[in-house]
Amino acid sequence: MMNTMDPLLLSLVTFFPVVGAVLVLALPRGGKNSARWIGLGASGLTFFVSLIVLARFDLQDPELQLVTRLPWIRVAGWTIEYHLGIDGLSLLLVLLTTLLTPISILSTWTAVEDRVREFIAFFLLLETGMVGVFLAQDLFLFYVFWEFTLVPMYFLIGIWGGPRRIYAALKFFLYTMAGSILMLLAILWLALEAGTFSVPDLAAQSGIPPQAQTWLFLAFAAAFAIKVPMWPLHSWLPDAHVEAPTAGSVILAGVLLKMGTYGFLRFNLPLFPEASIRFAPWIALLAVIGILYGAAVSYAQRDVKKLVAFSSVSHLGFVMLGLFALNPQGIQGGILQMVNHGLSTGALFLIVGMIYERRHTREIDAFGGLWKVMPVFAALTLIVTLSSMGLPGLNGFVGEFTILLGAFGSQAIGSGWYAGLAALGVILAAIYMLHMFQKMFLGPTDKRENQMLKDLNAREVITLIPLILLIFWIGLYPKPFFDLMAPSVDRLVAALQSASLALR
Amino acid sequence: MTAQDLSATLPLLLLTGWACVLMLLDAFIPAERKDLTAGLAALGIVVALGALAPRFGQTTEAFGGMLVVDGFASFLDVVFLGSGLLGIALAYDYLKRMGIERGEYYSLLLFSICGMMLMGRAADLIIVFLALELLSIPLYVLSGFAVPRLESEEAALKYFLLGAFATGFVVYGIALTYGALGSTRMEAILATVRPGATPPGLLLVGMGLILIGFGFKVAAVPFHMWTPDVYQGAPSSVTAFMSVGAKAGGFAALLRLLISALPDLAVAWAPAAAWISALTMVWANFAAIAQPNVKRMLAYSSIAHAGYILMALAASASSEVAPQAASAALFYLAAYAVTNLGAWGVVLSMEKQEGAGLSIDDYAGLGQRRPGLALAMTAFMLSLTGVPPTIGFVGKFFLFGAAIQAGLVWLALIGVITSLVSAYYYLRVVVVMYMRPGEPEARSERWLSAGLGLAALATVVFGILPGPLLALAERAGLMALVP
Q1: What was the ipTM of the complex prediction?
Q2: pTM of the entire predicted model
């Protein structure tokens, strides 16, 4: 019986949140709590459906699974399809998205009091866009989802954000659009040249001339590098993060940034393998600069949220380094690190949101000795902090270690120096994260405003617990996670290797 | 007149006749019952649409080859008639509120639509001229409809003078073409101009003049100077219709003439079209950024969109891409019509007496006070920017696709970059509506809401499921090539 459902599953994961959004908008004005419950219910059910997808997923199969492929637009020899599919490269990211969305909605329970209906509706629409990005296997469909995610995020920052929200929202929109319009031209050129918009078909019929590959690679990379964001295209990120509401930051860091790294993985590597190999050292260089720069700037921040935002630049540098190692360890580590960053940075933003809700400030100097007044909060924060800096036994270590291993042995990058310098980033991360933790949680509780703070309530603990469980699980026993992606990654690496042989 | 002539031009004849009758009838309709005139005018359009249906997409000649009715004409007919219908729905309440409700408004509108429909069917340059005049003269009058408001009079005079000037170019161009080829029939032009042979200089000059004349009509840079002033000064309901209908009419003539009659001269006109397109997109989009007045901003936006459509014209120079470029242009025209009329509908519902409520800042708080209206406006703005899932995105996608296919990657690049620029000023409206506090007041009226709702729905639905409309545009684009 389940088998008849299979082709529908992915569409269901993608579009179920829209049903929730419509329901929420149909509510009468003022129904704040019902809006929250519907939002939580819809995203919770979506998570449940994504677990069914996981259950139906065949671990041995490197190909796309649960494929839905229907003709959508057919004119003048252009065939655009409604084509969804999932494989080892996207499965974990879909699960991450569907997990983080209900958690974020739960985190807004008391933080958002204004225009709740619209907030929840935008949030659910955003989820549809993000899941669609990870599942779309048609370039047109992908681009539609990709651009569409801008709209709800723009509203989330612009309406519910901090004091400079309008500036931040506009900057976010324009910056991202600037990259994606170049990708749009590349998509058009590529699809018209090859006669298909289908990503697997394009990857199969390799043979794009190297000159064209260079330009196409760069055009796609423009869109993705801005989204990641890679140094030096990161300047929208701190603004967007600082101004966004907590839940927005969680999703922004947890999922939206992964859309960039996923884009490299899904499009640049398989579609332009020769160009990927040629550009690998350059990307690695930018990644390493990002790692060190992000870490150094994080250390200088006085605002916790900014600190976490800049640390994302550093962490995503690791992801990029891993992906462009172009070997199994590097890519697997990269994918795992995307998930890790989603979990730990998502949790960090939640933590920042919790403290901000209590004190209405995020200045590190305004705190101190919080451990004594908020022991539960402090303990949970410590776990997340350690995970973010890559302590062995927690998830960050597994990801970063695998990436460094991959980068050391990478032929494409060509030198161990990159990995060596990146390893320095791990140390820097320990410095800025512990520095922050020490200043905020240890020492005497010398500020009077801090002495009366209430510890976390049950809802807040519930929002953090799933993330912390996963942090431990991945840290202690990452094998099931690697198993999910291994076949697909191996296939991708094999394709890259045959391309590299052709280059010689 | 044969039966074939009659049946091929039935919708046009019906509408022309109805417009005349309506003008007379209106004299007997009392001043407080002008809703009747509006209703009758709408009825005329619906009947014309009905008359169109049985022969939709078929190709026939009429009046000894002076007119041709084909998929191209039929597609544009739907755009013109649809815009007219929406135009009436949006105008009705506005006219009453502004105290300029007079029955002639509707008959003039119908006459103008007749001109546009004639333009779509023109297979002879003389008909092109006739259609141009029939299209324009009612619009000159309508621009001054808010007399004795000075801006309206000024707009009418400006539009009339520059319009007459432009028509002069067209007529002179037609004369020179006739001088060079000895015929005004498009079929004859196609047959006379040999591919590869050096075209007579007279023909080149004539064609250039015609191009300039229509450049004025579609408001392409550098012939756009009149547009912001006229669009701002004319009553908004007129501008709404004019910005869509007149532009589509102008492009109907350009597409028909250049693609189907002068394809062998593409070497001469395609680079001109490409440069005008690039110039228009860049100039208008940057100028629009600085406009604090909604009407002026939308005026520059409409200039910019003429630039995008011209891109298709430039792309149609290569004969393999021509059908696709033509259909991309047609689809874009339809997309632009729906979206732009909708956006003007929001402007109409916000405008108050004495031109109040026209600044972008007056939209502050609309997202709170009138969520439906603000949502519709958001859809229109995103569609004009070209963000999915809207019809404007699909339009731009196929337009840029045609340009890339024709090898005009640089032009497509300018297209996407200027789209990014346009995002800035379109989003500013959204910012003001949702992110600034305010207490705006917007009209809420049955027909206005219905028209707006329909436009918003079409903007999104055709953005997600553009298939049927694209297929129609594709058939229409193919037929434009068969003279």
Answers
A1: 0.90
A2: 0.92
